[in-house]
Please model this.
Amino acid sequence: MPISESMVQDIVQEVMAKMQIADAPTGKHGVFKEMNDAIEAAKKAELIVKKMSMDQREKIITCIRKKIKENAEVMARMGVDETGMGNVGDKILKHHLVADKTPGTEDITTTAWSGDRGLTLIEMGPFGVIGAITPCTNPSETVLCNTIGMLAGGNTVVFNPHPAAIKTSIFAINLVNEASLEAGGPDNIAVTVEKPTLETSNIMMKHKDIPLIAATGGPGVVTAVLSSGKRGIGAGAGNPPAVVDETADIRKAAQDIVNGCTFDNNLPCIAEKEVVAVSSVVDELMHYMLTENDCYLASKEEQDKLTEVVLAGGKLNRKCVGRDAKTLLSMIGVNAPANTRCIIFEGPKEHPLITTELMMPILGIVRARDFDDAVEQAVWLEHGNRHSAHIHSKNIDNITKYAKAIDTAILVKNGPSYSALGFGGEGYCTFTIASRTGEGLTSASTFTKRRRCVMSDSLCIR
Ligand code: NAD
Model:
């Protein structure tokens, strides 16, 4: 049988991939002691990915999806064990969501103009090696979702994960490399260092081979990336308010809000962090939260105690982030029923447990005089993050007014916040929502350069 050029390419790729396995000193694929070595390995892998067909990239992505599903529970447990945050059941769902709904190469499309003067295309090309900084709140989910999107765009990726979630992040990085090797691709499509620090992050941000950095995390990291002199994708903090007006189905609103707020113990950046409701519906809303959705009403004294513990010394206490409601209540000496899902209370918007992005199931409810007042208070609470906001209303004029005023990347109407991630809602999934830099919900196309390709006076065959 004659050997075709593509067969030779496949054999070369396989040999090169096997040669690179020796690079990783930890026994895990893609994990290095030094950041410079990690970047060099990702660069080598990128040279191979660059020559691959879209079909070959898609084969690797299919294998990554399969492995995510097989390891969803392992990663969910590892994430909870390592960080002490979130809950296993919801984290399993999040991994399946990444596997099922993160766009692959189908997201890379071409725009064409054809006419008397020829044919012009906009093609989406890779950046090369992308630097990615990931949070401890969705550690493996972000690594996996970023890798699928970045690889679909023809890139490889260097991660500087949150140190508090390094074990889980390394597991995910190893998994995507194993998938690549299994599908005939190179090792090191995603890499990291054993011990990520601010120093390794700085090396990455300044490295000549990294043209683009995607930062998923709080305000500090996004500002650092946007000050790096490189192109940055900034997926920053949120504090999403859920507005409820008098036209809403109040019973359903209570259920949706509590479901969204308690998902993975409120870790997702899109999750409802506080409610602003018009005065006439506040009591009914709280009634349904308490009687049908396993909420706990915190007294004034309990709110004060929670503030002391959760915001000890005015700073967010990391030991409380991502804990469940019963555990949080036990920290202030309250033995709540085992099924307690969410702690609620009514307070002014300036209440520290309302104005701060807590990332735990504590949900303050702010009373508004009327809808305009609700919008004003919600915009204030979102702090100009332009991240996520939610509304429960059947009044289209109200919804439109709120959407324009709050100007967020995500606005969910009449559903739980997680429907914005494609979970029980239409649309694709991402764990990197570029709120600060405006790309919104990132996908493969976000990680590409737009290139114009012009054929003058030919190839128009109309
Ligand atoms: P974090 O800001 O503490 O850490 C995020 C990452 O940035 C980590 O890898 C950390 O090591 C790194 N980092 C922090 N400061 C840095 C600096 N000055 N220079 C370089 N790297 C730095 O956030 P976290 O606690 O891991 O995650 C929660 C935060 O992230 C919340 O504010 C949440 O809203 C936000 N978040 C946003 C998105 C989004 O898509 N927009 C997704 C998840 C989380």
Notes: Residues 133-138, 161-163, 198, 201, 216-218, 220-221, 224, 235-238, 269, 357, 431-433, 435 surround nicotinamide-adenine-dinucleotide (CB under 6 Å). Confidence is low (pLDDT under 50) at residues 15-24. The radius of gyration is 24 Å. Residues 54-83 form the longest helix (30 residues).
